[in-house]
Design goal:
This protein is of the alpha/beta class. The protein has 11 helices and 10 strands. The longest helix is centred in the middle third of the chain and has 21 residues. The structure holds pyridoxal-5'-phosphate (PLP). The site of pyridoxal-5'-phosphate (PLP) has 20 residues, from α3, β7 and α8.
């Protein structure tokens, strides 16, 4: 396994910090909780897509692309990081945004990640929820190519074997951090969506024989579908790296009990997690991904799934920019004190 043999455009602020969360640990009274700060990867408010894009954008550059295209939900963190990366490289970015929630909220549709997409110079097109976004991307890419553009198409979430290399590298990075500090870890927990993060991590962890169980907390698909998606991508990523067969089906574990009503729709437990992380640790979660991941972590700790004395790492995948598209999910009327 030799990641330096793959083209990569270095832009992320790495290694991201690995820190203990003392106040959250005390509040929950269970295992020692640590956080891997991939919300601090440095690109336009950070997030996990930056690690994937380092490998994807290098491929785009090698192919001489003058434009990248990708797709996501309206408040897509992936779209925003792609727009920012493209700006830094001096190439155009066009994004298809799927209206998965049907929300008419002005901030949801224009603020948060959407504002940042546009600030970075990207152009956007909307699609109704439920359409085949990959087919839509192919159609638009064909149109742009007919106009003479050299378009590099990045799948939703940057989740293909090239993008997943970024999370193979994250597994190496995290292991080096714990090995160098002597703080052995017992579990890793994170939000899982388009599967590239979990697939890359499990390949890296298994290839190093780290013996750390990895738990993905789902934000959209049912458990069977999510695990199958991650496993398929993990196998393809291992093939790409020349370590086929390193991941077994049972290594891929997703818990999808915290999705709630659906993708992008905030849950009570997710909103509680956002408030707890903000008030106890000054860490910002987002309602779509990291809050649902953290809600799973908190609930599983309360249920005794992780033991006192164990060390659990929550991989923070970013997303805080989406908070500004979701202000309507919060009610802070009680925080205003009447003048004396
Ligand atoms: C995309 C994203 C995820 C999920 O990562 P995948 O690789 O798509 O599974 C988790 N958290 C945040 C904030 C994201 O933007």
């Amino acid at each position: 396994m030799h990641l330096a043999r793959f083209p990569r455009r270095f832009i992320a602020h790495l290694p991201t910090p690995l820190e203990r969360m003392d106040r959250l640990t005390k509040e929950l009274g269970g295992p020692e909780i640590w956080i891997k700060r991939d919300d601090c990867t440095g690109l336009s408010t950070g997030g996990n897509k930056t690690r994937k894009l380092e490998f994807l954008m290098a491929e785009a550059e090698l192919q001489g692309a003058d434009m990248v295209m990708t797709q996501g939900a309206i408040q897509s963190n992936h779209a925003r990081q792609t727009a920012a990366f493209a700006a830094k490289m001096g190439i155009d970015c066009h994004i298809l945004l799927e209206d998965r929630t049907g929300s008419n909220d002005a901030n949801y549709n224009n603020n948060g990640n959407v504002l940042l997409d546009h600030l970075h110079g990207a152009t956007t097109e909307k699609r109704p929820g439920g359409v085949d976004m990959h087919a839509e991307m192919d159609k638009v890419a064909d149109r742009l190519r007919a106009d003479g553009r050299n378009v590099y198409v990045i799948p939703g979430g940057g989740s293909n074997p090239t993008g997943a290399l970024g999370y193979v590298n994250c597994a190496f990075e995290m292991l080096a951090q714990v090995n160098n500090s002597g703080t052995a870890i017992d579990h890793i927990v994170h939000a899982t969506g388009s599967a590239g993060t979990q697939a890359g991590l499990i390949v890296g962890l298994k290839a190093m024989n780290a013996q750390i169980p990895l738990l993905g907390i789902g934000v959209r698909a049912p458990k069977e579908t999510q695990e199958a998606n991650v496993f398929k991508l993990a196998c393809a990523t291992a093939d790409k790296l020349g370590c086929s067969g390193v991941v077994q089906r049972e290594d891929v574990v997703a818990n999808t009990d915290y999705v709630g009503k659906g993708y992008g729709i905030p849950t009570e437990s997710g909103l509680e997690a956002i408030r707890m992380f903000a008030e106890l640790e000054s860490i910002l979660l987002d309602p779509v991904y990291s809050a649902k991941g953290a809600a799973g972590l908190i609930d599983l700790i309360r249920k005794g799934h992780f033991k006192k004395g164990e060390r659990v790492v929550f991989l923070h995948t970013g997303g805080s920019a989406a908070l500004f598209g979701y202000d309507a999910a919060f009610n802070f009327a009680d925080r205003w004190t009447a003048p004396a």
